[in-house]
Amino acid sequence: MNQRHPNTKAVVSEGRIAFIQSCWHKDIVDQCRLAFVEEIVRLGCPEDRIDVYEVPGVFEIPLQAKLLAASRRYAAIVATGLVVNGGIYRHEFVSDAVISGLMQVQLATEVPVISAVLTPQAFHEHEEHRRFFREHFLVKGREAASACWRTLANLDRVRRLQDAAD
């Protein structure tokens, strides 16, 4: 089901992609970036068109995304991080704030923001969970690359329609 707009490769290869990742549980979150880069390159985006930005935690991602989108340097922004339930309600507040913030950024700037910020119901520091989430972030990285690719193609198509109507 890899439906591509005919100009997708040109759109992605000409634009830059910002990849923001939080450093909390970095060994796990890194897997998303590695898989994203591998997949987006496989789809046709040159690796040198991807800029990586690290932030301390997920709460800092929306501001970074807003500033990057406002720079008009990026065709798309991808964000990843891991919000863990530490046994208090705070993780729900943080998750909601991050996802809402990312949505606000893309709606205000018309720069797509792809979220691979995960908020698992349960995460424990033992090796079984760490291994599971390292593998899961590989899947999410590939999915984020596919979503980014398709979103850029769809936006290009809509913008071409708008230009033709003008």
Topology (SSEs and partners):
Blueprint lengths: L7 H7 L1 E7 L3 H18 L6 E6 L5 H10 L3 E9 L7 H20 L3 E6 L8 H39 L1
Parallel strand pairs: 1-2, 1-3, 3-4
Helix pairs in contact: 1-5, 2-5, 3-4
* Biggest sheet, spatial arrangement of strands: 2-1-3-4
The whole-angstrom Rg is: 16 Å
CATH architecture assignment name:
3-Layer(aba) Sandwich
Kindly estimate the percentage of residues that lie in beta strands according to DSSP.
15-25%
- Specify the CATH homologous superfamily: Lumazine/riboflavin synthase
Instruction: Let me know the number of strands.
Output: 4
**Which regions have little confidence, pLDDT < 50, spanning 5+ residues?**
1-7
Helix content: 55-70%
Structural class: alpha/beta
- Helix count, per DSSP? 5
CATH C-level class: Alpha Beta
CATH topology: Rossmann fold
Number of domains: 1
Give the ordered list of helices and strands.
Answer: HEHEHEHEH
Average pLDDT works out at 85
Largest sheet data:
4 strands, parallel
Shape: globular
Spatial separation of the terminal alpha carbons? 33 Å
Structure description:
The structure is a single chain. The protein has 166 residues and is an alpha/beta fold. The protein has a single domain, classed as 3-Layer(aba) Sandwich (Rossmann fold), CATH 3.40.50.960. It contains five helices and four strands. A four-stranded parallel sheet has the order 2-1-3-4, sandwiched between helices. Helix 1 packs across helix 5, helix 2 packs parallel to helix 5 and helix 3 runs parallel beside helix 4. The longest helix is centred in the C-terminal third of the chain and has 39 residues. The radius of gyration is 16 Å and the shape is globular. The N terminus is likely disordered.
